[in-house]
Amino acid sequence: MYKIQKNSTCKTGRNDPCPCGSGLKYKKCCLGKDGATKFYNTKKLYSQKYGIRLKQNADIEGIKKAGRLALKTLDLVESKIRPGMITDEINTLVHEFTIKNGAVPACLNYRGFPKSVCVSVNEVICHGIPGKRVLKDGDIVNVDVTSILDGYYADTSKTFFVGTPGSEAKKIVKVASESLIAGMSMVRAGNTIGDIGWAIQRHAEEKGCSVVREFVGHGVGFDFHEPPHIPHYGQRGEGIKLVSGMVFTIEPMINQGKRHLSILEDQWTAVTKDGLLTAQFEQTLLVTDNGFESLTPFDL
Ligand code: MF3
Ligand code: CO
Ligand code: CO
């Protein structure tokens, strides 16, 4: 059981460097400013207790910049997607656009992942490896981009239609989009991680769909995957309390059929066990006192 130590509170002296990283003395900078001391106390506590690294203004600006690039990358892919294209062409687009903009694709060589983006078609839940698969009219394809710009990571994905979608494709993509909205609507300081998963699960199951459990959202910003886990299922009021400065993804994978998955022989590609459709949207979110700010904002 973790006990909060008395000395875990902030003991920054008036003449010490300001914990905000400005380089100024604390007394010339954040000392006495509304909420500053409380923020630094919480920052230290969350780091010690959970390994969660809260972000401050300069970090948030950096993640936002990476997020803008990741979104532009998704826009580029959307403009080029068409039946007949192979998924490796999406990889080339993402890789070249990322490098051209002075960034690095986080997926490339991440734990041995061989490509610069995940491309997951129809029954592929996530971590699809771009290759020779040909996109057909009516397919749905999730493209998951993580850009590293000036050392900051932003992680975002959308599911696109290839050509003209059928009614089942339209439905699962809509429910996946709504499920992300449901999760995001619970993000505010004072709520818990369990509230997010509860809202997502309730929405998806109400629509007759299911929620993948083996993959979860995650802290992000200084690294690709940071604590905490953000499950897309769960109980109201359970789990860690959200505080301002937390940055994490919500990325519910919503299945048309049962929630169960298999991993292919490549050790990456996750597919629905029943072979039915699955869809996903992902954004990188900052917790604020009043709610959240998306650092990879797009319409859902
Ligand atoms: N972008 C994925 C996520 O949302 C992670 C992909 S890891 C990779 O967390 F290695 F497959 F690229
Ligand atoms: Co993610
Ligand atoms: Co992602």
Rg measurement, Å? 20 Å
Which kinds of small molecule does this entry bind, naming each only once? 2-amino-4-trifluoromethylsulfanyl-butyric acid, cobalt (II) ion
The pLDDT mean sits at 95
The major β-sheet equals: 4 strands, antiparallel
Give a description of the structure.
The chain has 300 residues and is an alpha+beta fold. Helices cover 28% and strands 21% of the residues. The strands form five sheets. Strands 1, 2, 4 and 5 form a four-stranded antiparallel sheet that branches. The chain has a three-stranded antiparallel sheet with strand order 3-12-11, with no helix packed on it. It has a three-stranded antiparallel sheet with strand order 6-10-13, with helices on one face. A hairpin with a 6-residue loop joins strand 7 (217-219) and strand 8 (226-230). Helix 2 (57-80) crosses helix 3 (87-100). The longest helix has 24 residues, at 57-80. The chain is globular, with a radius of gyration of 20 Å. 46% of the residues are buried. Residues 2-8 have low confidence and may be disordered. Bound molecules: 2-amino-4-trifluoromethylsulfanyl-butyric acid (MF3) and cobalt (II) ion (2 copies). One cobalt (II) ion (CO) binds at residues 144, 146, 155, 157, 251, 282.
